[in-house]
Amino acid sequence: MGRLLALTIGVVLLLAALGIALALVANGQLTHNRRLLLEQVGPARRTALVLENALVNEETGVRGLALTGEASFLEPYDSGLRAERRAYRELEGHAPSAGPPVGADVARVRAAAGAWRGGYVAPTLIQPNISKRRSIALDVRGKRLFDVVRRSLTSLVRTLNAKSTRARANLTSAADTLQALLILAGALILGGLLAAGFILRRIVTRPLTRLGGEARRVAAGEFAKPLRAQEGPREIVALGAELEQFAYVASHDLQEPLRKIASFCQALQTRYADQLDERGEQYIEFAVDGAKRMQVLINDLLTFSRVGRGGREHEPVALNDVLASAEQALAEPLERLGGRVIAGPLPSVIGDRPQLVSLLQNLISNALKFHGGQPPVVRLSARRAGAMWEISCTDNGIGVEAEYAERIFLIFQRLHSRDSYEGSGIGLALCRKIVEYHGGAMWLDSEFSGGARFRFTLPVDEGARAERADDRAGAGRGRG
After folding, report:
1. pLDDT tens-place string over residues 160-195
2. What is Dmax (Cα atoms) for the chain?
3. Are 408 and 465 spatial neighbours (Cβ–Cβ below 8 Å)?
4. Across the beta sheet with 452-459, what order do the strands follow?
5. pLDDT at 416
6. CA 211, CA 209: separation in Å to the nearest integer?
C-alpha cells in the first residue's frame, strides 16, 4: 500500500511539474513578444514619425528660403536636421531587435535624405540669388529628390507597421497558448488528483468503510457471526482478521473457562466445606457469582447478536398469542410481585414470532424489575398508524428521566447500580434491535409521567385486515 501511495503522489507531482514547466515556457514567449512590441517596435514607430516630421520641416524651411530669400526660414531646417540626426541614432538602436528590414529601410531613408541635401539643399544655400529659370529647374529637382525621401519613409513606416502587427499577433497567440497550457496543466493536476483519489478510495477508503461496518456490527453485539472476508491492502486485511478473531473469542472461547471456573469453585465449596472458614466460603461464593454473571452477560450478548440471523421468513403473528407466551415465561416473577398485565385487543403483525415474544418478555420484565413501591401493572394497547401498528407498553414503575431517553437503548448502559437492580443493561437495546429488524422504530414517551411508557411500531398484517373486512361483509349479507 505504501508503494502504491508513493507512486500515486509521484505521478501527481510529475503532472504538476510538467504543467508548471509548460506554463513557464509559454510565459517566456509572452514576455518576449510583449517586450518586442513595447520596447522595440513601438518606440521605433514613434521615432519614424519624428524622423518624417523632421525631414518635412527641413524641406519646408529650404523651400521658404528659396522662394523668399529670408534667412529666418533656416531655423526650421536647422531644428529638423538636429531632430533627424537624433532619430537616426534611436532607429539604429532599435534596428537590431526590430529585425534586418528595419535597418535597411533606415539606411535607404538616410541615403535618400543625403541625396536630397546634396542635389537641392546645398545649391540653394550656396546660390541664393540665381535666375528664375535656374531656380525653377532646381525646385523641380528638389521635389523629385524629396519624393524619393518620402517613398523611403513610407517603406520604413510600412515595415514597422508590419512588425507591430506581427508582434501583436504573436503576443495574442502567446497569451492564448499560456491560457491553454494553464488550463491543460490544471486539467492534468485535477485529473491526477481525481485518479489518486479514486485509487485511494479503492485501496484504502472502501476497505476501511467495510471494515468499519464490520466493527460496528461487532460493537452492536454480533459476536457469533463470522466477519466477511476483507479486501484491500494487507494491513486492512490483517486488521479484519484480528477483528474476526476477537468476535470469535468473545462469542465462544470466553464461555469455556468461565464454566470451568464456576464448576471448580463449586467443587471446592462442596468437597472442602469443612476445611474452609467463613471468609473462604465467601470468597468462593464471590468467584462463582462473578463467573455466573459473566456467563449471563455473554449469553445476553449472543442473544443480542442473533437478532435477524435466524433465517426464518416473516409471517403473520397474532400479538395476543405472543403476549400469552411472554406472560407464561414470566409467571413466577408476576406471581411473586403480584404483578398484572392488562391488554386490550392486539392486532396481527408480520414478523418473527420468537423474537416478538422476546420483545414483549423483555418489556414486561423491565417493568417488573423497576416496579417501585406498588405492585407492578403493565398495560398494552395498539393503534393504527398508516402501514404500521403503533404499540404502547405502559407501566407504573419508577419511570425514566427525559434526559436519558436515548441512553437507555444503548447496550450495557445502566442508570442504576447493580446492587440496586440486577441485569446486564442489554434488555432495552435488544428490544429496539428487534423492532428495527422488523422495520419499525422504538422510543420512550418522555411526556408520560407516573411510570414509563414505551412506544414501538410493527408492520401491519394486510392479510388479516382483508380477512376481517370479508367477515364484516359476510355478516352484512347474512343480516340482509
Report:
1. 888 778 778 877 877 777 777 778 777 767 776 777
2. 166
3. no
4. 340-343, 377-385, 388-395, 452-459, 442-444
5. 47
6. 5
Which amino acid appears at position 303 of this protein?
T
What pTM was estimated for this model as a whole?
0.46
Sole residue written with cell 400469552: 324
Q: What pLDDT shows up at residue 114?
A: 86
The tens digit of pLDDT for each residue in 21-69 reads 777 777 777 777 777 777 777 787 888 888 888 888 888 888 777 777 7
61 close to 142: Cβ distance less than 8 angstroms? no
AA letter at 317: V
Q: Which amino acid is it at 116? A: W
Share of the chain above pLDDT 70, in %: 69
SS3 letters across the chain: CHHHHHHHHHHHHHHHHHHHHHHHHHHHHHHHHHHHHHHHHHHHHHHHHHHHHHHHHHHHHHHHHHHHCCHHHHHHHHHHHHHHHHHHHHHHHHHHHHCHHHHHHHHHHHHHHHHHHHHHHHHHHHCCCCCHHHHHHHHHHHHHHHHHHHHHHHHHHHHHHHHHHHHHHHHHHHHHHHHHHHHHHHHHHHHHHHHHHHHHHHHHHHHHHHHHHHHHHHHCCCCCCCCCCCCCCHHHHHHHHHHHHHHHHHHHHCHHHHHHHHHHHHHHHHHCHHHCCHHHHHHHHHHHHHHHHHHHHHHHHHHHHCCCCCCCCCEEEEHHHHHHHHHHHCHHHHHHHCCEEEECCCCEEEECHHHHHHHHHHHHHHHHHCCCCCCCEEEEEEEEECCEEEEEEEECCCCCCHHHCCHHHCCCCCCCCCCCCCCCCCHHHHHHHHHHHCCCCEEECCCCCCCEEEEEEEEECHHHHHHHHHHHHHHHHHHC
Report residues of the chain scoring pLDDT below 70: 1-6, 8-9, 12, 15-16, 19, 94-101, 127-137, 188, 192, 196, 199-200, 202-208, 210-241, 243-255, 293, 295-311, 411-425, 464-480
